[in-house]
Amino acid sequence: MLRYISDLDHYKEVLSKVLTVRETLWIGTADIKDVYYGDGKTSKPFLGVLAGLVDRGVKVRLIHAKEPGQNFREDFDKYPSLFGGLERVLCPRVHFKIIVFDLGAVYIGSANLTGAGIGMKSAGKRNFETGIMTDEPEIVQSAIDQFDRVWMGSHCAACKRRAYCLDPIK
């Protein structure tokens, strides 16, 4: 199934799918900020959701292009299980927005992992985003392959942006 996700549905459709993950979650984003997720009548940092997944044994990988801001770092420090349980790679060339769910479904779109991109910002403050959610095997595998090539540092040896890489993969 291939489903188009409009800008207002990113928060509801994509972030709620994260809660269903059982084994693996791969997130690739250019920008990452302190995203919040609604939990009934309250909201909590999305990092808390990721920590809950890590605590359940889910393997969570995150690729992002630049170091997140102070608010993200403060939220991160509240979840000790993320220190060793969240696998993280920094690559300044990453601009894709890919979320792979249990290696069987994928979101591919324009939304960064920010409040205005995929988070809880109100309709009048959100970015206009678009994307697809699919479990079509060929599309899922292509996204997995692209994510994995970056994760493994396949591009590092020939990278012309290495001077900007704060934490080279290879």
What does this protein look like?
The protein is built from five helices and nine strands; from the N terminus they run E-H-E-E-E-H-E-H-H-E-E-E-E-H. The protein has 170 residues and is α+β, with helices and mostly antiparallel strands. The protein has a single domain, classed as 2-Layer Sandwich (Endonuclease, Chain A). It has a seven-stranded mixed sheet with strand order 1-9-8-7-2-5-6, with helices on both faces. Strands 3-4 form a two-stranded antiparallel ribbon.
Keywords:
single chain; 170 residues; alpha+beta; Endonuclease, Chain A; 7-stranded mixed β-sheet; two-stranded antiparallel sheet; 5 helices; 9 strands; 25% strand; globular
Main sheet, how many strands, which sense, barrel? 7 strands, mixed
The shape, in one word, is: globular
Q: Mind telling me the CATH superfamily name? A: Endonuclease Chain A
Order of helices and strands: EHEEEHEHHEEEEH
Instruction: Classify the oligomer.
Output: single chain
CATH architecture: 2-Layer Sandwich
Q: Unreliable stretches, pLDDT < 50, 5 or more residues?
A: none
CATH topology: Endonuclease, Chain A
